[in-house]
Amino acid sequence: MVNDQVDRFFEVLADPTRRQVVRLLGEGPQRAGKLATATGVSSPAMSRHLRILLSAGLVTDERVAEDARVRVFRLRPEPVVAVQAWLDQVQAHWQENLGSFKKHVEDKGTL
Questions:
Q1: What is the residue-averaged pLDDT of the chain?
Q2: Where is the secretion signal located (predicted)?
Q3: The domain that contains 76 carries what CATH number?
Q4: Model-level pTM?
């Protein structure tokens, strides 16, 4: 399950516009129009990107009480936490391997 979430995260963020949207949402919630302007894409293109991010669970949206047509998008922390956990596992694996290699080299140097 976690690996599926990590795979989907990287798949969705392979697109540079979506990575930029995630960076922008990391600064705080924003409306689609503001995201479109900031990324330099059309409103329909931004809608497609946001739909993909929503379906992957990377962002959420909510309606503004004053105007039900307006949606505010927020970054969800859970997928980022899952990717960070995966990266921590990869780093731990490499740290262990490099530690073993260092010990091996040091042991060979004393012969």
A1: 86
A2: none
A3: 1.10.10.10
A4: 0.72
